[in-house]
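thread from #wetlab-drylab

HS: before we spend reagent money on co-crystallization trials with magnesium ion, can we at least see a predicted complex? here's what I'd submit
DV: go for it
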Amino acid sequence: MTEESQRRDSPDEAANSHGVEETSSYLGLRGRLRLPTQMIGTFIMIPRVEIVEMAVIAGFDAVVFDLEHGAITVEDLPPLCAAAAAGGGATIARIASHRDIEIGRALDMGVDGVIVPHVSSISTAHALVEAARFPPSGKRSLNPYVRGLHFAGSEPNALDNANSNAAFIAMIEGSDAVEIAAEIGDINGIDGLFIGPVDLAGELGFPGQPEHPEVVAVIRKLIARLCERGVATAIYAPNASAANRWFAEGVSLVVVSADSAVVIDAFKSLRGMINPLGS
Ligand code: 3PY
Ligand code: MG
């Protein structure tokens, strides 16, 4: 880990004082992003607690609620978070835009962290991080009676704990962002960079082909650069072999496929194996 990454603001003391061998979900998402551990996540597009429960029961470490592209709104988050937390799954909201209010509201609902899409400048990254932290660290607006603060504004250290525990992950999914990714990753308060191969593929001239060899080559180099610098990385993988490849490259969090894709693939496969008489 570089000096630069060590000086960043830190998750709670418990997380900092534990070594790799004590890795477990009690460290929280932010704490786990600090360790050389690897987590498997999946995108949740369908706002049903049962889907979240199934993902966690199946062994996924984290669920990413996709407010950018899924049929999920901020109001869906509390029961979805409760469902994941009951099974020990970490909860992340991929928000839809760069509006401060969206970052704050997702955290108010009780997610463990946020992923912010399309971050491509240093100044934007700084502003977005501030939206996720209460003063004096940032500019997150406060109402203490929210789920994310245990509904109880009076809890001692509630705001410090919220600042220490909420993970902030910026998405790198444009060619301009790739160029400055290491500097974005060094910003105090950024816990990881999530590479978006789908949008990046479009920018590189291969729309809809996140597995195109040229796209994979660009991402491989980026991951190596970030890992060397001690910046935690996350990425979307469309399938298991892509997920395994990115884990082998040292990625901390691989978000593989999505609930909707898993369900339709299973339906198609099942349907394909059944042959009614006369068909
Ligand atoms: C991308 O790959 O562009 C993403 O946003 C991941 O879903
Ligand atoms: Mg994207």
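DV: Confidence is low (pLDDT under 50) at residues 1-24.
HS: ok that's useful, forwarding to the group
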